[in-house]
What does this fold into?
Amino acid sequence: MRVLVVDDEPLSRRGVCLRLARHADIAWVRECGDGESALALLRDTPVDVAFLDVRMPGISGFDLLDRLPPASRPLAVMLTAYDQYALRAFEAAAVDYLLKPIDDGRFEEALARVRMRLGGAPVVDAAQAAPVRCFTARIGHRDVVVRVDDVEWIEASGDYVGLHVGAKTHLVRQTMQQIEQALDGRRFVRIHRSTIVRLDRVAELEALSNRDCMVRLHDGTLVRASRSYVDGLRAALGL
Amino acid sequence: MTATAALAARHPPDARLPVWMIVLAGSPIVLCMAIMGLPELADDHAAAFRVLFALTYLAWSVPIAIVQRHLWRKVPAWALVAVMLAATYACSIVNNVLAQVLSMHWGRTPNFTWARNLSGLDGCWLALIAFCAIHAMVAHAHELRAARERVREAEGLARDAELRALRYQMHPHFLFNPLNAISALVTERRNDDATRMLSTLGDLLRATLESGHLHEVSLADELATTQLYLDIEKVRLGDRLGLDVKAGPDVLRARVPSLLIQPLVENAIRHGIARLREPGRLGVQVSRDGERLRIVVTNDGPPTEPRGVGQAIGLANVRERLSRLYGDRQHVDLDLAAQGGCRVEIVMPFQAAAPRETV
It folds into this structure.
């Protein structure tokens, strides 16, 4: 993947580049400190994805996209400290936008979206066999079996994942990714990088001012759905 | 828009009544003149004279109104009265002259005499004096109403500013602890935790600053902001902080003052859970009871010290803002258990926020 990072602040560029360096499929990264030089570079160098700061002296991130012929426009991930650019990013058909300070989880989500757009099949295990029925959680020295049917929602908690069953929370040493793949996608839906809910536990959705969503479960628990998952959740609920 | 600009935009410098409205207010006088003329109807030409006086009255009322409007509040009242009396008298004399000429034309009056013209009050003078009086009354009433409106508006702006100031008291408080915690995380080289906390803090600041121009937000937004704050505290306190945030059906769209719950939760942690050696629980329950919204914040805490409780800036501030926004229709109760722990209950009117259009 060929990546261009455009931001007028060197430290901010550095932050993006360091996060990109964790990925093996990203071998080519260029940096530009302003819109003009990025424009010059993009005119004769093909780039797959550009991380664009919105507010820069001279040409802004959005202007930069506008000035490029559609054919040579890279996929864009906007970087901004201001939430009000969300709608604009949406209109400019940006793949995603990231708020500063950048959250690692959100950064990974944005990259996953880029990969999907670039046509790389989503990394799904071929062994998408029958979903698991139980998890084993460790309490002290003994293992407890937690039936998937009893789990109402799941939350990331450090190196563990918390399975919520009624008022109890069972900790399982797995990643959200592993858990998500082990579950039946028709019953459990990821709504946030750190939250999965069981669909039949969802009682209410209320949109938030930043396009995220507040989700109320039947027992009154409140969990947050981030904007990149809201559409999926609505679709799964048949809304 | 600044307060003065807002005032100026709604109240242009010329707040006087338009002339046509004054003339309209004086128009019933024509009717009075017609009724006063009824006894003379036997006379052949009485109707013609009455029509002449009515038309001349209407014609004079426009310049008279303009003069009075121009002098209004610019000269002392006695001078205005004198000027208007003189002006209307002059108009009346012109009328009388016209009437006498007409009378000579019909052969009713043998010759022209100034004496009759100067003394005759019936022509139009009384009517025009009445018109000037009506003008003065209408203008005065208009001024009173405009003044009342300005006062109301000023009160609204003052209330706005007070609410804003009260809300700004809240901002800096929740910044320092997280910043300190982040610096500790960096020192410990727990980079992932540090960056996660920084981005959460960024979200929290955005959420509180963005609601900066709003006094009220949806409960869902307020709870989301509170949750961001709790996410940060959770990193700081770890297992010492147990959370139980629950909402009943159909409350998330309720309209509440922005930063209503967050300061209460901050107090609960600062004065309660953070002072405990063992893990403590913090609960937030929101429910709806018909037209009332009930918010209950409970927390564990050390046995109470008699002083300083309830004086916390957060609670006083919340009380103040609620009473300004909802008057008597709200109350805030604070219960301190002797063995430790605290319960704050807010009851306020349930008002649904405008539905947000989905993008």
DSSP finds twelve helices and seven strands in chain B.
